[in-house]
Amino acid sequence: AAGRLASGALVALIYATAYADDRQVMLCVAREMRRLGLRDCLIAPTQLRWQPDGSAALIADWEQGAVDYLVRFFPGEWLPNLPRRSGWGRYFDSCRVPASNPLSAMLVQSKRFPLVWDRLSTPLPTWRALLPETREAGVARRDAQPEGWVFKPAFGRAGDGVTIHGVSPRREWDQARRSALLHPGRWVAQRRFEAIPIAIRGVDHYPTLGVYTVDGRAAGIYARIARQPLINHTASDVAVLLSSETQSATESS
Length: 253
Hints:
Shape: globular
CATH class of the largest domain: Alpha Beta
Structural class: alpha+beta
Strand content: 25-35%
CATH topology of the largest domain: Rossmann fold
Number of strands: 15
Distance between the termini: 25 Å
Helix content: 10-25%
Strand order of the largest sheet: 2-1-6-7
Number of helices: 7
Order of helices and strands: EHEEEEEHEHHEHEEHEEEEEH
């Protein structure tokens, strides 16, 4: 998208300013924007002034002007927590500014998305083959063996709110099941599977890998690891190293 913007175009990088690690990501993106001849501005979502025609302008003390492009690194489900005067609803209903990670992406980011797959014309064969069975949380609560299900919030990151029987503290397990009963639209249940650990210095660790793609091509791998089969805020980030043989095979494919 940056290649289609005119030199000097203003790109607003929207992120949760209270999180230093999010800022690190945005600073990296900002450097790349400047390398491409664009102007960048790191802001909170409240630092946009929405216009009646759906355009937006910056109201930051250090930068002013009409925004040509938006990069959102702020969770969409957090927007309703902002003051109404910030106009956060415009992100959803009348935004006319080109954007990376637009709010429409929340449709497929929701963990409840698999519940509507059968209504879609798109087959999604790989997703269906790899994703554990996904049901309404109420189905799992009524199961004779509810411990065979994992309860997950519809939206979340870093494993926040995910509960597994026998792994999560009993209090968190009970709270999740109770919340799923009171607010079923905010939860989903997925069939539990046994994760395969790897031993590090004689101690079992459970890794998780996420592959980044750009235009359908693999561009990187993100990994986290924990001593329990639940990856949450207690997990550690780890580097993923590719052997020369693996890299050659990847490039040839």
